Amino acid sequence: MERPLFQLGGRLAACARLVRSGRPMADIGTDHGYLPIWLAKTGRVIHAVAADLRPGPLERAKENVRKYQVEDIVELRLSDGLQAFLPEEADFIVIAGMGGEVIASILGAVPWLKETGARLVLQPMTRAEELRRFLAEHGFEILEERPVLSLGRPYSVLLTAYTGRQEAGGILFPYLGKLLQSPLTDKAERTAALAYLGKQLRHLQNLEKGARAGGEQEAQMEYCQAAEALRQLIREEFPNGSN
């Protein structure tokens, strides 16, 4: 008897929605392997590589691949980021559940990403501004960015690709990216977007306090201006809350 398929949590479900059907994909830092297994069981991918740096998580993923009988679709691989991959192996590469600075270091370690046209689905847990700055400085364009709530916490999921174009940016770009440039499709997304903006405002306020305490006047002014710009954006975009 076939096991009933689990449901993905909010973060991974948002990542799954950005992976185009019928393409090979890689999940970097796969942990339990839930994302590639779900994509395989629902017929969304023709081949997936579930990769992790550590043998322990990879063994858990292996057990789940067997449990859900997707050995013919999901391959398991021990890899430090993308170091054990060839350029042509994946059209979509998912890197989720890590700090933004870690994701940036993974991308920066493989120059061939600029040659393949691969789509990158990125979900930073922290320091998203460092990831967005890296993308802008290295010619990776944010094609789409979606907000999501997972276990009550707001996150952003980015679909990116190397185009060679540097993002025009602006004072809020590192903190919001293109979160509000795509239509928010329903109340859940509006709620997630407002929560994310609120989280980033608090982050900017904390950065401002730290700069003030450290006597970094230029940085303090920059954070203060960004925080005020974000307050104004929230007032304009969400005058009545998320409704």
Topology of helices and strands:
Layout: H1 10-17, E1 25-28, H2 34-41, E2 48-52, H3 55-67, E3 74-78, E4 92-98, H4 100-108, H5 113-116, E5 119-124, H6 128-137, E6 140-150, E7 153-162, H7 173-176, H8 187-213, H9 217-237, E8 239-242
Parallel strand pairs: 1-2, 1-4, 2-3, 4-5
Antiparallel strand pairs: 5-7, 6-7
Helicity range? 40-55%
Provide the low-confidence segments as ranges: none
The strand order across the widest sheet is 3-2-1-4-5-7-6
Report the portion of residues in β strands.
15-25%
Q: So how many helices?
A: 9
SSE order, one letter for each helix or strand: HEHEHEEHHEHEEHHHE
Overall spatial form:
globular
Gap between N and C termini: 44 Å
Structure notes:
The N and C termini lie far apart (44 Å). Strand 2 (48-52), helix 3 (55-67) and strand 3 form a beta-alpha-beta unit. The longest helix has 27 residues, at 187-213. The chain is globular, with a radius of gyration of 19 Å. 43% of the residues lie in helices and 21% in strands. With 243 residues, the chain is α/β, with parallel strands linked by helices. The chain has a 7-stranded mixed sheet, with helices on both faces.
